[in-house]
Amino acid sequence: MTGGWDRRRARVALAIAGVVLLPAAFAPVAASAETITVQVSKLAFVPTSVTAKIGDTIEWVNSDFVDHTATATDRGFDVKLPAGKTGSVTLTKAGTFPYFCRVHPMMKGTIAVTE
């Protein structure tokens, strides 16, 4: 007589576990952050415009023989880029962020950040 009761309890426990765990099976998986590379070469940012998501990192690779910066026009970031070195910033908010080189102001770029 207790065998039927145990099977019923097992079915109820399984049903509860299914209800609890099923939503987790369909939950969206968080996208991993990416690193987007911008080359600094011949007094230019290449590409001049990039699109990224919050949490992504922009890495500038300065292959010039002179120092540069990647400076947001709103001063939200100011990355020093010594000759032959790299620098980076991790994006923390959505928006469009124009930037330039403080040493060579004609060098300009834009980062569009989405959520």
Written account of the structure:
- The protein is of the alpha+beta class.
- The protein has a domain at 35-114: Immunoglobulin-like (Sandwich), CATH 2.60.40.420.
- The protein has one helix and nine strands, in the order H-E-E-E-E-E-E-E-E-E.
- The chain has one helix spanning 2-25; strands at residues 35-40, 45-46, 49-53, 57-62, 68-72, 78-81, 86-90, 95-100, 108-114.
- The strands form two sheets. Strands 3-9-8-5-6 form a five-stranded mixed β-sheet, with no helix packed on it.
- A hairpin with a 4-residue loop joins strand 1 (35-40) and strand 2.
- The radius of gyration is 25 Å and the shape is elongated.
- The model has no long low-confidence stretch (mean pLDDT 87).
Could you write a compact summary of the structure shown?
The chain has 115 residues and is an alpha+beta fold. The protein has a domain at 35-114: Cupredoxins -  blue copper proteins (Immunoglobulin-like, Sandwich). It has one helix and nine strands.
